[in-house]
Amino acid sequence: MKQYLPILMIFTIAVGFGAMNIVISHLMGRKKATRAKLSPYECGMDPVGSARQRFSVKFYLVAMLFILFDIEAIFLVPWAVVFRGLSESLSKMFVFFEMMIFIGVLLVGYIYAWKKGLFEWNRG
Amino acid sequence: MSIDVGFLLEALIKIVVVFHIVLIILAYTVYAERRVLAVIQNRLGPNRVGPQGLLQPFADLLKFIFKEELVPLAANKWLYLLAPLVALVPAFMTMIVYPFGGTVNLPWVGEIDLVVTHFNVGLLYVFAMTSLGVYGIVIAGWASNSKYSLLGGLRSSAQMVSYELALSLSVIGALLQAGSLDLVEIVRAQGGFFGLGWHIFWFQPLGFFIFLISAIAETNRIPFDLPEAETELVAGFHTEYSAMKFALFFLGEYANMLTASVLATVLFLGGWQGPFVDQFPLLGPVYFLGKVFFFIFLYIWLRGTLPRFRYDQLMNFGWKFLLPAALFNIVLSAIVALFAL
Lengths: 124, 341
Description:
The structure holds two protein chains of two kinds. By secondary structure, chain A is an all-alpha fold. Chain A has helices at 5-28, 35-38, 58-83, 89-115. The longest helix of chain A is centred in the last third of the chain and has 27 residues, at 89-115. Chain A starts with a helix and ends in a 9-residue tail after the last helix. In chain B, a hairpin with a 3-residue loop joins strand 1 (103-106) and strand 2 (110-113). The termini of chain B are far apart. The longest helix of chain B has 36 residues, at 5-40. Chain B has helices spanning 5-40, 56-66, 77-93, 122-143, 147-178, 183-188, 192-195, 205-218, 230-233, 243-268, 283-305, 311-338, and strands at 103-106, 110-113. By secondary structure, chain B is an all-alpha fold.
């Protein structure tokens, strides 16, 4: 397990580095805030309305598609790592076709999503 | 469980050294970007601070420190302060698995591995960390409470998740060839043919190009820099950020660029492998850094050359071209691995 400990070390160092920089610039920077400076930037005009507005549902669709396909991609990783090392040719053939069927299923889902128009960004 | 003090001390020293190397590389990447872009655009670029402007990064640092720090009134204060850290820390955490070279025999030190640590899920660790970076951008976009920031954050998250798919699928081919997720083992697997058994030559050229394109999109660089798109969104998710907090976003973005270059080098260009590296192990870091710098130069070159995609083009390209191409590459690589070529 010890080879994982450096993750903890670099995490501490990176957080320390980032926090230190923010604190230093907080202490050293000049502070002369005015009301205009502290308002959201909208090209120098007074801001119109709030930024807490509704946005397109397409972003959610993309996120859902990503989760579906990414889980499928993760299943490919362990297969890819052990596949070359399989010695027996019969089991290798079996594992190969097993995975081709999996990719085929994935492809069916992909084509379905395409036909449903999920990748058409410009459609209403 | 006994704690191996020697290992921890060695790891700590290595982390400090690697941290400084990475910081210097990042600082001079910014400088190199400004100079190279200047050459491409037929102007001079920064050349006043020190010889050839070589001290420019330090001048920039001082300027960032002394700039005014603003927290917009409408912003969600704690999330606003947290976002730069969330963007920076995961980007920096990948550096412990960069394989700079093999085992070398240094004077006074003895035998030493030129990598901080390596473990059997190294590549998954790198992917986990780089995909955490999107949180920093989304939090920044939302917490600033500005329309430009919100749009930049949304665009960025949609773009990054779209291209992450093609990215993770494109490495499967290289994994089929190497048979390991440990970055050091992946490099070792490419040592044949006088150190030229690189995956880009041996059955993975398609995977390499898919990886390269999605990595550029993943790091939000031109031609995929829609989250920042100065001409439409001012600066995207960091419109409202100033002083050092802006600099941290900047550092995080360049650290991600470096990680993408390192991954491309390790997975497809053989990491530290090259001619005569077995006889002279010290050539390893030279080859490794040379290849990484080539990718960084490529990033800058593309920025100087290409225009920006439109958003629907970007989504089309990612979902309708790169994703099926990556799947096709997996099937091809599987057939190659089946006959054990």
